[in-house]
Design a protein that fits this description.
alpha/beta; Rossmann fold; NAD(P)-bd_dom_sf; 7-stranded parallel beta sheet; 8 helices; SDR_fam; about 250 residues; oxidoreductase activity; single chain; Short-chain dehydrogenase/reductase SDR
C-alpha cells in the first residue's frame, strides 16, 4: 500500500534504537525525509546510516523542554520544514510511591510530558499554516493500566495523553492530526533492563505469547502518519498484543 508520504519531512525524537528507530525506518521506507535525534553521537551516526540516504542526525537531549524544542527547530532547518512530528523519549527510573522522592516528579514530567508540549509548540504552528501535518506520540499502555513500580512514567505519560487529546481537538480543522500509540511489551533495551534480560517473563504476560517486534510497531506508526489515516485524530491506540484487558 502506498501511504502517500513520498517527499514529506519527519522529525522523530529519541530514535537511535527501539521503537523510535523502527518508526523512523518505516517512514524512510515510504519516501519520507527523516531527521532523528539522540544523545550519543556514535549511536546516532549508526542509526542514521541504517536509514539510508537523506536522513539527518541531530545530537539533542529531549529530556528538557529546551532540548526538545531545539531538536524540532534544528530538524526544520535541516529538512526545510517538518510535516510529521513523532514525539518520543526514554522512560524515567522505576519506583513506587513510597520509594520515589517528590523531586523526581519534575524530571519525569519534563521527560515524558513537557518535552511533548515543547516539540508540539515548535512543530504544530507551521503545520497549521500549511494545512497539513501529523503529530504522533509514542507513550505507553500504562496510560490505560498503570504498571506496578513505574509511578513516574504512569503519571507523566497520562498527562501527555491529556495534552495530546486537547491539542487534537484544537487543530483538527486545520488538517493536522494528533494521535498517540500506546506500546505494550516490545523487545527493546528498556524492556530488557526492566526484566533483567529475560524476555520470556515479559512474553508470558502477553496473550499472543510473545513480546512485540519493533518493526511491526513502526509500520503502525507510519500508517497513522499517512494520507489514509487523515480521518483519525485524538486517538490513543494500544499496540500490545492484546495485553490490555478492558473494553475501553
Amino acid at each position: 500500500m502506498d501511504l502517500g508520504l513520498t517527499g514529506r519531512r519527519a522529525a522523530v525524537a529519541a530514535a537511535t534504537s527501539g521503537l523510535g528507530l523502527a518508526t523512523a525506518r518505516a517512514l524512510a521506507a515510504e519516501g519520507v525525509r527523516v531527521a532523528i535525534c539522540g544523545r550519543d553521537r556514535d549511536r546516532l551516526e549508526k542509526a542514521v546510516a541504517s536509514l539510508g540516504d537523506g536522513a539527518h542526525g541531530i545530537v539533542a537531549d529531549v529530556g528538557t523542554p529546551e532540548g526538545a524544542a531545539d531538536f524540532v527547530h534544528r530538524a526544520q532547518e535541516a529538512l526545510g520544514g517538518v510535516d510529521i512530528l513523532v514525539t518520543n523519549a526514554g522512560g524515567p527510573p522505576p519506583g513506587d510511591f513510597a520509594s520515589t522522592d517528590v523531586d523526581a516528579y519534575a524530571q519525569a514530567l519534563n521527560l515524558n510530558l513537557m518535552s511533548v508540549v515543547a516539540m508540539c509548540k515548535a512543530a504544530v504552528p507551521p503545520m497549521r499554516e500549511r494545512r497539513w501535518g501529523r503529530v504522533l506520540a509514542i507513550t505507553s499502555i500504562t496510560v490505560r493500566q498503570p504498571a506496578p513500580n513505574l509511578i513516574l512514567s504512569n503519571t507523566a505519560r497520562a498527562g501527555a495523553t491529556g495534552f495530546l487529546k486537547t491539542l487534537a481537538l484544537e487543530v483538527a480543522a486545520d488538517g493536522v492530526t494528533v494521535n498517540s500509540l500506546q506500546p505494550g511489551l516490545h523487545a527493546t533495551d528498556r524492556l530488557r533492563a526492566l526484566y533483567g534480560g529475560d524476555l520470556s517473563k515479559a512474553a508470558a504476560q502477553v496473550p499472543m505469547g510473545e513480546v512485540g517486534d519493533a518493526d511491526d510497531f513502526g509500520a503502525v506508526a507510519a500508517f497513522l502518519c499517512s494520507e489514509h489515516a487523515r480521518f483519525i485524530t485524538g486517538a490513543a491506540i494500544p499496540v500490545d498484543g492484546g495485553a490490555y484487558p478492558a473494553l475501553l
